[in-house]
Amino acid sequence: MPAIETFALAKYYNIGFWRKRRKDALKSLTLTVEEGEVFGYLGPNGAGKTTTLRLLMGLVYPTAGSARILGKALDDPAMKAQIGFLPEQPYFYDHLTPKELLTYYARLSGVPGKDRARKVDAALARVGMSESAGIQMRKFSKGMLQRVGIAQAIVHDPKLIFLDEPMSGLDPVGRREVRDLIQNLHEEGKTIFFSTHILSDAETVCDRVAVLNKGELRGIGVVADLVSEVSGQVEFVWTGAAATAEIAALGGKTHVASETFRTVLAQEATDRAIDAIRGAGGKLISVTPVRATLEDYFLSKLETVERDAQNMQEVTR
Amino acid sequence: MIAGGLLVICLAASIGVSQKVDWERGDVTLQDVLYIPSPNTVKHLSLGYNGLLADIYWTRAVQYFGSKHHEHSLNYKLLAPLLDITTTLDPHLITAYEFGSIFLSQKPPEGAGDPHAAVRLVGRGIRENPKDWRLWYHLGFIYWQELHDPKTASECFLRGSEVPGALPWMKVMAAALAQNAGEAETARYLWTNILNSTTDKDIRANAEKRLIALRADEEVTILQEYVDRFQKAKGHAPESWMEMIQAGMLRRIPIDPVGYPYQLVNGRVQVARPDLLPFITKGLPAGKQSTVMPKIS
Amino acid sequence: MIGRLWAIAYSTFREAVRDRVLYNLIVFALLIVGAALLVGQISIGIERLVLVNLGLTSISLFGIVIAIFIGIGLVSKEIEKRTLYTVLAARPVRRWEFIIGKFLGLVGTLAVNAFFMSIGFFAALLYLTHRFQRADANLLVAIYFILLQFVLITSLALFFSTFSSPLLSAVFAFSLFVIGTFADDMRGFAKLTEGGTKWVMTGISYLVPNFSSLNVISQVAHSVPVPGHLVLLNTLYVLVYAVAVNCAAVLVFEKRNLK
Description:
The complex is a heterotrimer.
Chain A: E1 2-15, E2 21-34, E3 38-42, H1 49-57, E4 64-69, H2 77-80, E5 83-86, H3 98-108, H4 113-126, H5 142-154, E6 160-164, H6 172-187, E7 191-196, H7 199-205, E8 208-213, E9 216-222, H8 223-229, E10 233-239, H9 244-249, E11 255-256, E12 261-266, H10 270-280, E13 283-290, H11 294-316
Helix pairs in contact in A: 3-4, 4-5
Chain B: H1 2-25, H2 30-33, H3 39-45, H4 50-70, H5 79-89, H6 94-103, H7 115-128, H8 134-146, H9 150-161, H10 169-178, H11 183-197, H12 201-234, H13 241-246, E1 263-265, E2 268-270
Antiparallel strand pairs in B: 1-2
Helix pairs in contact in B: 3-5, 4-5, 5-7, 6-7, 6-8, 7-8, 8-9, 9-10, 10-11, 11-12
Chain C: H1 2-18, H2 24-42, H3 47-71, H4 76-81, H5 85-88, H6 95-129, H7 137-161, H8 166-181, H9 183-192, H10 195-207, H11 217-221, H12 228-255
């Protein structure tokens, strides 16, 4: 059974003074997340990631389409007991201590009395907050709140966990810890759905990712496959002659630094490029393959949108 | 540092200026400005907490009267409205009706001198509290002493005597007034019973003053009789009490109930300090008016 | 369900206490002690009357002010501070449970507050009169009616909190309280009007929360007992009215998009 399914899920808002202008926060999202996956939900700010999460959490209501979580409707309390959620920039009752908050939440989630204290302590330990468990949260830094946020998302041992920007507010050590935590949860068989705009994190942890931009799904698939879509390139660094024209003929731009020239070309053009540079009188310094990253895939997806939009404009002009 | 010093100076200055403002405003004190036209308005403003507000207005009414009386004022024009508001807010505040019955009806400076306002007030009290027999004697008092209508007064005492729980003296008063029995005795009887029936300290004090005045009236009458007898016997008025003592008519110098010797002026018996005996009708120095209007017999 | 309602109610109570709402008890204590000591000098013969009026009025007023102050933020504060996302999103808490839990929490807080005030009040009364009389049992009825007032005003403040800013909610709630104290006057006035106005006025005068019938302080101060059937009827009225208002609050809250 898929963990998450959406069918043309959409949300628009009426904005403007007279509420006449329509703003599409999410346009017709259809995707599926399988159980046991770590799924990354990527996109720039304003893409609609948080809107998607709010829709899935039942905080806002869709204007079109539907979704199911663990095969059940979005307002099904039995389903809600089995999921955890960390919102973007979480806020908690700051007159409570983490221990009190987690105990309260565990109670609301239906954790039986006898297990509560144990699970609360375990969750706090897992996010490294055991020492601060008794301090009122009004005194906490953003990073500490973030950890408490993660703790409350897992304290009741849910099957499926939603994280909105889980790394935000954390220093590199903290981020590493969160990545490890996600790995551990994954190994325990849980499904993780997390949205982020820090692609390097997603790359190392996720099984599959989706890219969202301006409310539309731009791409979805296994990380390795996507990365390889953006074909390998090679970087050339040389001195001496610019060889701009020859490089341009191969489809590359020559960047001029103080004493060196640099360009990046497709892998297939390696031999021709070496000849061109040599032939122009340049002296090669290095020839290095560039490893494609998720970022390249990501940006290419965004560029596609821009290019499509431009094309449309030109066509319609 | 500067802020601290400035704070202290300005606080002290504000107290000084405030006092000057009070002084400049003079007679226009908070009490007079308090007057709100309509009791119903006040009732609506009370948001249902009329009991407490009534107590507050009652306290103000008592203080208003007390402070004005202390200054020997002749003007109590806010007393009736204050009591009106008080009893509109709490129609069951018996003590307010009692207070009003006496201090609205008595002549200044012992009261506001408005017996009709007093009658209206006590009338409302009786309507709202039909089981309270005491209000009837307050009504009776007004009709008898201030409106000089013993017939209506007698009816009041009679009606009051029929209320369950009324003390027997009500019937006695009714009868006494109906039969035009001796004024002084009846009055003494009334005031003694009022003194014993009420717990309000102002009303008690008033009743005591009334009783003292009755005693003084009595003593002045008796002394005047002796003086007249002396006149007849000796052919001239006595110059002093010593003369009368030497003549064997008196045994000692007579002292009035507030501790001053009675005076003998041109053959008339007088009290030395009429201001200490507010309710006397006899023995007043020439030119002084009684606060209790002499009855037209 | 009960477990969740209790958890939310307790959490609301705890928040109020940690926000130092109970400090108002200190002010009340000073007031009532001062009154007990001074009342004899100001109004002889009616000391008990004044103390009862002052004590019960304070219990009622303090409570209503607190009810409005906290009630207007019950939902709006959670939305503004975003604390309710983690409560509603991934927990089996239905939206109506959230509303009712908050309601019960605030009413509970007010009841606890009134309880402590009542103890202080009865202590002052004992000091003044040296012995309790039978008539003092009426005072308990008056306090019960004050609790009913709290239930009414809380439900109203909570309702406004589901859709309105704290300032507006305070204005609305307080206005309804004031108008509610005029309820019987409005009905009397409605009887005197004719035609369309009569329908409108009568309608309004019955829709408005009837605070006037819940104020028996003056009556009880004069040791006049409250008849049993009135206690029953008023309880029923408040129950029905509060449930209606709470339903309205639930309806509004369930429709809301929590951005």
